[in-house]
Write a structure and sequence with these properties.
58% of the residues lie in helices and 3% in strands. It is built from five helices and two strands, in the order αββαααα. Strand 1 and strand 2 form a beta hairpin. Helix 1 packs across helix 4.
């Protein structure tokens, strides 16, 4: 149970902390879109697709907003909850201990079983019995 709680806390914290780091690495920074980054390529493709401008509410516009201002409190709560659920699930997926293998029977018992015949003796053929009348 403790492993699940630790996984949930770590998952929630990692999810909330990772968003600004990942967005900054991709090129969505507080100062705008970084030149020659993946974000710049995404913005260029969005502008070409929309006839010269980036549409409000598009993926590029939303990511730029989050990169510049960060996530809202409700978004952080939602993201932290999802991260906590995933971290808790990962924490519960590992087995805590494994059971020991079953004990082997005594060596004498093994030898006795190995020496016993496993074949039944042959039965006499049908009709070879003597019938008295």
């Amino acid at each position: 149970m403790q492993r699940v709680a630790v996984g949930a806390v770590l998952g929630g914290a990692a999810a909330v902390a990772a968003v600004p780091v990942v967005l900054g690495a991709v090129g969505f920074t507080g100062a705008g879109i970084a030149a020659s980054s993946l974000a710049a390529k995404m913005m260029s493709a969005a502008a070409v697709a929309n006839g010269g401008g980036v549409a409000a509410g598009s993926l590029v516009a939303t990511l730029q907003s989050v990169g510049a201002a960060g996530l809202s409190m409700s978004s952080n709560i939602l993201l932290g909850s999802v991260g906590a659920a995933f971290g808790g699930w990962l924490g519960s997926s590992k087995k805590s201990t494994s059971s020991p293998p079953p004990e082997e029977p005594e060596a004498e018992e093994k030898e006795a079983e190995e020496n016993e015949s496993q074949v039944e003796p042959p039965k006499p053929p049908v009709g070879s019995e003597k019938h008295e009348k």
